[in-house]
Amino acid sequence: MAEPQVSISPQQIGYESPGNTVRFGLIALATDMTTEPDFVRIFPPEAVVHTTRVHYANPTTPENLRKMAPLLTDAAALITPGVPLVGICYSCTSASATIGVETVERFIHAARPGIPVVLPTGASARAFKALGVQRIAIVTPYLPEASEAVANYFASSGFDITSHHCLGLADDRDMARVSKRTIVEAAIAADGPDNEAIFLSCTAFPAVGAISEIEKRTGKPVVTSNQASAWEMLRRGGFKDWRPTEYGRLFTLQLDGVDEGFAA
């Protein structure tokens, strides 16, 4: 029997308007198991996050974190080439603090010039300013040396660090497996009479699901790396009215001084 011939369908092709979907880019570590599911939980269906990965080798030391910087260009180039993005998030708090904002932006912009970059460090600092707090307690899952870089970032940004606890983990895959109960109790242990808010650092840390309980028990706002990054991305992307109730007080607030769309 002769093989059937393939013919072009007579159906005229229609395309969805590009303006119907807001697209973000995400650069996640090769070992990151947390950022993507956190963003799926938080983002509305009208927002789409396109993910690429950057090579990373544990342990989480300043030396290993710095090695990622030149790799960010190739990672950014792989995010939906030729498709407009509202912004790109580099999802690593300790690396952002260790490498520095300008260096991260330079390597990403080498591949995707002009696209705004969201970092968990800057997003968290803007979150605290929106919340009107200056005195913060910090909890990280890292080794002490990686934790110090994060605390130094916030101190240099004008915040007062009232307490700073770390869990002493070296591998971010272990950080991703820390239980909710451990995160809640670690936050309670770091809380005290002097801090106005609590910061749970690390995009690998599965802290988003613990926010509501910690806020309820302490009466203070909680900011996490992935929550803050998602908040800034969505607010800058025009989702001003997206206010999920289970992810903290932060989502009741706007990003100060930013109109719809990314500011220059």
Automatic annotation (TrEMBL):
Pfam families: Amdase. Coiled coil: none annotated. The lineage of its organism: Bacteria, Pseudomonadati, Pseudomonadota, Alphaproteobacteria, Hyphomicrobiales. This is Ectoine utilization protein EutA. It comes from Pseudohoeflea suaedae.
